[in-house]
Design a protein that fits this description.
By secondary structure, the protein is mainly α. It contains 5 helices and no strands.
């Protein structure tokens, strides 16, 4: 399970992040606000400049599977 989980989060690309945002019709700033991070971080992920940390990756994957309603407050 550990390798499968790690492999899964290792491939969270900017393309997947953009697709997630597109499905929820969210701009980067709104996704960032819902995740309690800076919009600059989301921008860097989308461009492939950096990768999300494990906590953010987990949240992104959960939202990818369950929908963005998980982030709604």
């Amino acid at each position: 399970m550990g390798f499968k989980y790690y492999h899964s989060i290792a491939v969270m690309t900017g393309e997947r992040i953009r697709a997630l945002r597109a499905r929820g019709k969210l701009p980067q700033s709104q996704l960032a606000r819902r995740m309690y991070i800076s919009s600059n971080s989301v921008q860097k992920w989308a461009r492939g400049n950096t990768q999300p940390k494990v906590a953010a990756l987990t949240m992104l994957e959960l939202n990818e599977k369950k929908g963005l309603a998980v982030l709604e407050s």
